[in-house]
Design a protein that fits this description.
With 428 residues, the chain is α+β, with helices and mostly antiparallel strands. It folds into 2 domains: 146 residues, Four Helix Bundle (Hemerythrin (Met), subunit A) (Up-down Bundle); 181 residues, Alpha-Beta Complex (paralog of FGE (formylglycine-generating enzyme)), CATH 3.90.1580. The protein is 30% helix and 14% strand. The strands form 5 sheets. The protein has a 4-stranded mixed sheet. A 3-stranded antiparallel sheet has the order 1-4-14, covered by helices on one side. Helix 1 runs parallel beside helix 6, helix 3 runs parallel beside helix 5 and helix 3 packs antiparallel against helix 6. The longest helix is centred in the first third of the chain and has 23 residues. The chain starts with a helix and ends with a strand.
Length: 428
């Protein structure tokens, strides 16, 4: 498919997703702030249009700003999320008109834009891919907001597929070098580049993410009451916040339930645990006699085929994700049972490394050797350092366009509202 045609198709799919997520939500809920951690939903909606205008109309097409005041309101770095309700936000109707107008002009200009391979913004339609992924990432952010919102959110979901038996709970990945990152993924971000050789020692890694059943054993064994399983910072955070279980879990007599988009339901024991922070994942791993994998170990287990010495785009190979290979794009609105998608296992035998839950790693978010910030510092560079931990693999809420083996996500180790889980590793 022609790059321009592909870009137009993906732009439309992202917009349909954004509008479809918000259509069932009452206007007052779109304007409200449901958590100080999250923006009002209507801010996210107009923000994706403003980002698109800046990059595809002004930067690429050379057109003037439609309303320069919007740049201040919808700049993610100028106003903290908890302050955004005080801004003169476009209301839901105005936001829809604004993003529709931007999109119409983008498609009008797309026909006459030359995708000059000498221009890194235009080569392979990079800047269009960046805008498409950006909107899908905000759609996942809006799903996290909808999960925090009081009241039920309507959704219909198919039943997950069958789970095939797993031969082993963990597999040995032999030590040695592999290529980490990418030089070839056309829409990859600056923090994924460049590909570089990394050597890791042999290690064991879980074949599936830690399940709710597994995590419940940690709770019942007093894991939240014993400081020896927690790091010093983690224990202080657990005590300060009164953490006793994953977010959205509810103890009911001798059993457990969870709240999912306003619905109370029996805790599904076979699903990967989600809504746990890095400190909780670290404590569980220590209790289990293991640790969190480094992001290099995670990527090697997900991508490296030792037989051919070839790096895969996805655990199953180079073909794009489908519903048969991964749980992505809110198809299920929850993680599939641990052990699903046997045919999509990585070369070493790990399942569900793409989709279901973002997986915490032990690694700080730092740049790769030789990495260059592109096309703006605020995507990656300003976040590098020890304040953020890397997550890998995407979640059920991540769109297939916005995830791959080399993709790097990051967040503060205290964050739980994201769709985060983990798998464990240990030394070989």
């Amino acid at each position: 498919m022609d790059v321009k045609e592909l870009a137009a198709r993906h732009l439309e799919a992202a917009r349909q997703r954004s509008l479809g997520l918000l259509d069932p939500v009452p206007e007052q809920d779109l304007m409200a702030q449901h958590s100080p951690l999250m923006s009002p939903l209507v801010w996210d909606l107009a923000h994706v249009g403003n980002f698109e205008e800046i990059w595809l109309l002004r930067t690429i097409a050379g057109l003037p700003a439609k309303d320069p005041q919007l740049d201040d309101i919808y700049d993610a770095f100028r106003h903290a999320r908890k302050e955004r309700t005080r801004l003169k936000l476009l209301d839901p109707a105005q936001s829809r008109v604004y993003i529709s107008d931007v999109r119409g002009r983008v498609l009008d200009t797309l026909d006459r834009i030359e995708l000059n391979p000498a221009n890194p913004l235009l080569a392979d339609g990079y800047v269009y891919g960046m805008v498409i992924q950006h909107e899908h990432q905000h759609d996942e952010t809006m799903l996290a907001t909808l999960q925090l919102r009081p009241g039920e959110y309507p959704f219909v979901e198919p039943e997950p597929g069958s789970v095939e038996p797993i031969a082993a709970k963990e597999v040995l990945v032999h030590g040695g070098s592999f290529l980490m990152g990418t030089n070839t993924e056309p829409w990859s971000y600056d923090n994924e580049r460049p590909a570089h050789e990394v050597t890791v020692d042999s290690f064991w890694i879980d074949t599936v993410p830690v399940s709710n059943r597994d995590y419940l054993h940690f709770i019942e064994a007093g894991g939240y009451e014993e400081g020896r399983w927690w790091s010093k910072r983690g224990w202080a955070h657990r005590r300060e916040q009164g953490l006793e279980h994953p977010q959205f879990w509810v103890r009911e007599g001798s059993g457990w339930s969870r709240t999912r988009f306003g619905r109370r339901e029996v805790l599904p024991l076979d699903e990967p645990v989600q809504h746990v922070c890095w400190f909780e994942a670290e404590a569980y791993a220590r209790w289990a006699g293991k640790r969190l994998p480094t992001e290099a170990e995670w990527e090697k287990a997900a991508s490296w085929d030792p037989q051919s010495s070839v790096k895969r785009r996805y655990p199953w190979g180079d073909s794009d994700p489908t519903a048969e290979l991964a749980n992505l794009g809110q198809r299920l609105f929850h993680p599939a049972p641990a052990g699903s998608y046997a045919e999509a296992a990585s070369p070493c035998g790990c399942r569900q490394m793409i989709g279901d839950v973002w997986e915490w790693t032990s690694s700080d978010f730092v740049s790769y050797p030789g990495s260059v910030s592109f096309p703006y510092r605020e995507y990656s560079e300003v976040f590098y350092g020890k304040d953020y931990k890397v997550l890998r693999g995407g979640s059920w809420a991540t769109h297939p366009t916005a995830v791959r083996n080399s993709f790097r996500n990051w967040d503060h180790p205290i964050r739980r509202q994201i769709f985060s889980g983990f798998r464990c590793a240990r030394d070989g």
